[in-house]
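Table S7 (text form). Paired inputs.
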Amino acid sequence: MSAGKPYILGLTGSIGMGKSAVAAMFAGLGVPVFDADAAVHQLQGPGGALLPAIEEAFPGTTGPQGVDRPKLGAAVFGDKDALKRLEKIVHPAVGAMRQAFLAEHAETPLIVFDIPLLFEKGGWEQVDAVVVVSAPPEAQRERVLARPGMTAEKFAQILKLQVPDAEKRARADYVIDTGTSLAETRHAVQHLVHRLTGRE
């Protein structure tokens, strides 16, 4: 790894694979984690920087609590042009937050970018390596269907929009398996951190 520039690890994985748990493990080991979803929530939450632009593009979809997710979802669902308009508002703002995060942690040897749709929406070009969080399909299904409001139909729709797990694993530089015990997963994360920061 080059001195003075953090090594950027892109963290991704399909729904229900345990990506959030793995991101927390990296953070627990002192690795700064940029959470793209959390950045979007901040930008679209109460007083969020993107509310005026979103309201202008999609009238009636924001309020005192920030973006009304069901209303905005309904406004863009199944409409590729509307989704593109929304992405043009959101992506540059998230990109700016990511750059600021990078500048803030410029002296750190390793940084994790937690990007759920890394392969679907692009972004792998901006990282040094990609780690995919994966688990057997039956474990994934069980986890997802246990979520409030989730149905088998919704799960099937989400899977259709995501790059298949097998393809993600094939394109990954590293794979963290969460189909094992938490201790084993934590050990795998620790091993990877040590490897990438030259501590082994």
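Next pair, protein 2 of 2.
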Amino acid sequence: MFPEFEVVPAVDMQDGQVVQLVGGERGTGKTYGDPVDAAERWLDAGARTLHLVDLDGAFEGERVNAAAIDAVLEAVGDAAAVQLGGGIRTADDAVALLERGVDRVILGTAAVEDPEIVAEISDEHPGSVLVSLDAKDGEVVVSGWTEGTGLDPAEAARRYADLGAGGILFTDVDVEGQLGGVRTDPVRRVVEAVDVPVVASGGVATVDDVVALRDAGAAAAVVGSALYEGAFTLAEAQAAVDER
């Protein structure tokens, strides 16, 4: 998983459309069109991995945008790796997606409610689970970022790595979607807690932010709003981390 640092475009879906939320708040989203069009755009731009999230699924607790996701998977084929989250609540759901062609499943709420699900899936599909730790005010939140858990992100990351997680997806919800820049200290804390790759998300506004996440130890950075708003191109961001 991520032998070299990657810039990973986000394709977050709500009501069958690409949406970027601000601060994780439902109803704050800006729409960016058809998910297949977005996926093909990022493939053409050189993406090696796509980050798909069923936002409705994250809020509702069940996969809602399955048809849109299936269309993206069909369009992507073997051209890029796909990691998918949002509404995946059982091991059977996760395994079915992995067998459908998803490379990594992202578990947030399900992993908090039943940590052993990480081991169960990982035993059958090693390296396939990316545990999502979304932090708000320094606390892991679940159910579409609406419920606190009392968990410290770094401590939780260590626990899931011990259970066999292939990597950790750390999202800084406090800066998510705001194009205001990243905070590297929370990322660094999670990176230093585990030996598995950490994918950072939230706040990227410039290519310097991407480089800062790389320098903080992240194995990849998920970027959404900055790419959709044209703050920089995927090629520019990837070149920046490759050259510096």
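The first helix runs from residue 35 to 44.
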